């Protein structure tokens, strides 16, 4: 018996969903936007286990409350309430899935990568991800617990 295309789509959809379940996150100050969903893939459970030498896909769906010509991402590792800047390959939100200029009332899917370098220590920390508009106000800010591991 040959599986139907619909059955194959359902199986593939279920497999993809298992890798990119919406995460429980803390909103840490979204002012000019509202977060609808945060996905980190792969991260089937929390805290997310981030393996050294691996890159993770970030997808944030948010609605903008303002108009902005551009946006810029800032990522931090938060330890003992201290934010340590975390470099990402592409900080420009307009090159990360967002159609600029950003329009009020529209929803956007922000897509980026979180590379975990081999030289990072094996520790538990909080990842804090901000996207600011052209006035340096928060379109979104979210936090999730992670554990960097070998």
From TrEMBL:
InterPro entries cross-referenced by the UniProt entry: Ig_E-set, ML_dom, ML_Npc2-like, NPC2-like
Primary location recorded for the protein, binned into one broad class: secreted
Signal peptide feature range: 1-20
Record-annotated MD-2-related lipid-recognition domain positions: 25-146
Keywords: Disulfide bond, Secreted, Signal
GO biological process: cholesterol efflux; intracellular cholesterol transport
Cellular component, GO annotation: extracellular region
Localization per record: Secreted
One Pfam entry name: E1_DerP2_DerF2
CDD domains, alphabetized: Npc2_like
Keyword Ribonucleoprotein: no
Domain of life: Eukaryota
GO molecular function: cholesterol binding
Family according to the record: Belongs to the NPC2 family.
Protein name as catalogued: NPC intracellular cholesterol transporter 2
Gene field: Npc2
